[in-house]
Amino acid sequence: MFNIIDEENFESSLKKFINIHSLWNINISRIILLKKFLEIVLPNLDDKKNIDIAIIGGDRNEIELMFIKGNSSVRVFGVEDYDYYLDLNVGINDPPHFDLIICNQVIEHIWNINSAFLTFKNMLKKEGLLWITCPCSNMAHGSPEFYSAGYTHTFLDRHASLVGLKKISSGSFGSARMYFFQHIMNRWPTASEFFGPISFFVQNFRSIPKRGMLHKIFWTRIFSVAVDAKFCNKEIINTETYGLFIKHT
User: Fold this and answer.
1) How far apart are the C-alpha atoms of 245 and 18, rounded to whole Å?
2) Can you give the pTM of this predicted structure?
């Protein structure tokens, strides 16, 4: 489970992490997932000098890549802005093999989850790692299709086990404030907006994307301040899921 969110000093340690790496303009949930990546994925890469990495459905700007030391080669797979075309619904023939697959916020756009996990397994080297994140509860969005409002970590665990991948760690988390932002305001807030919704509103009113009206109405910002910002793993307000899996054979 996502134990660090239960620590009393989690918010202060999170803000310190944000300050150190200048992450105030990044999605707050993405920052927490990055923090978890550094804690559970990087230690499993320590003994690898040359790391072959596959980015599924993303690009070379994935923030995790900034923290991977040593020599690494990166290839991007997907149906948009890719080096190699890959439709996870149908898989890939004779795939290259990787030490690490990073798949951020992709599987909610996939209808054939079985095929996706089998593809992940087939693309991993022996002892290769799969890092996967997805919404647990989220607003509908495109890029290019959308099939699910999100999955729990037990969903990831089950599908990984069906193809023979072993879980190292997985979890789901959220906060009442994050849930409010996503389901009432239809926004993924940055760290600045999450921790200071009113000041962010005042400073950035003109530049806030015009997607609906609730995000422009001041009273919603006032209400969001009253909503608990503490991150936890209560199922009713979970908004994010992650999993780290390994291929042993």
Assistant:
1) 27
2) 0.90
In this structure, the number of other CB atoms found within 10 A of the CB of residue 168 comes to 15
The radius of gyration computed from the CA coordinates of the chain, to the nearest angstrom, equals: 18
- The predicted-structure confidence for 51-72, as pLDDT tens digits, reads as follows 999 999 999 999 999 999 878 9
Tokens for 116, please give them: 């996706």
| Structure tokens, 243 | 């999993």
Measure CA 110 to chain center.
15
Q: Distance between CA 167 and CA 172 in Å, rounded?
A: 14
Q: Shortest CA distance to 200 belongs to which of 184, 181, 183?
A: 181
Measuring CA to CA, which residue among 179, 190, 191, 192 is closest to residue 224?
179
| Lowest pLDDT segment from 4-8, 25-29, 61-65, 136-140 | 4-8
